[in-house]
Amino acid sequence: MTEGAECGPRGALAVFADGVTAYCARLQYTDGAAWSHDPQLAPNPAVEEAMRQAGPRLGAQCMGADIGRRAVDASGVAILCDNYVWRQDVGQEPRHPWVDDQVRWMECLEQSTEEDCRDFVDE
To answer: With contact defined as beta carbons under 8 Å apart, do 72 and 78 qualify?
Structure first.
């Protein structure tokens, strides 16, 4: 018997070939059951692989909340969310134009009127 093989009923016990106790546990993300070293949960490699492939990938769009976030895409490339796009991470400072514009607006208002700042922003 191997870890991840289907089993039943949940809660059943057995022994792996190496003498370690095997537990019939719930298969992660399903209602199924599989042999596991963990009595509560059997890892589901099929789902874990699909989730890994569903992660961020080079060239894909990213949201503002992810700007500055670093990750590794499915092909092993280090990537960074920069200006709403996942780009290769080469140590660059991530850009966030909306936030940058808001900072400029607030800095302008500290020294000028709102009307002057609107003219400045519209340039």
So the answer is: yes
**Phi, psi at residue 98, to the nearest 5°?**
-60, -45
pLDDT, tens only, 38-78: 999 898 877 766 666 668 999 999 998 899 999 888 877 89
d(CA 66, CA 81): 6
Cis amide prior to 94 (ω within 30 degrees): no
Query: Rounded distance, CA 33 to CA 94, Å?
Result: 44
C-alpha to C-alpha distance for 16 and 31, rounded to whole angstroms: 23
Q: Which two tokens stand for residue 21?
A: 């106790």
Which 8-state DSSP code applies to residue 90? S
The residues, any chain, with a CB within 8 Å of residue 67's CB and separated by 6 or more, are 81, 82, 83, 84, 94, 95, 96, 99
- Do the Cβ atoms of 57 and 66 come closer than 8 Å? no
What type of residue sits at position 17? A
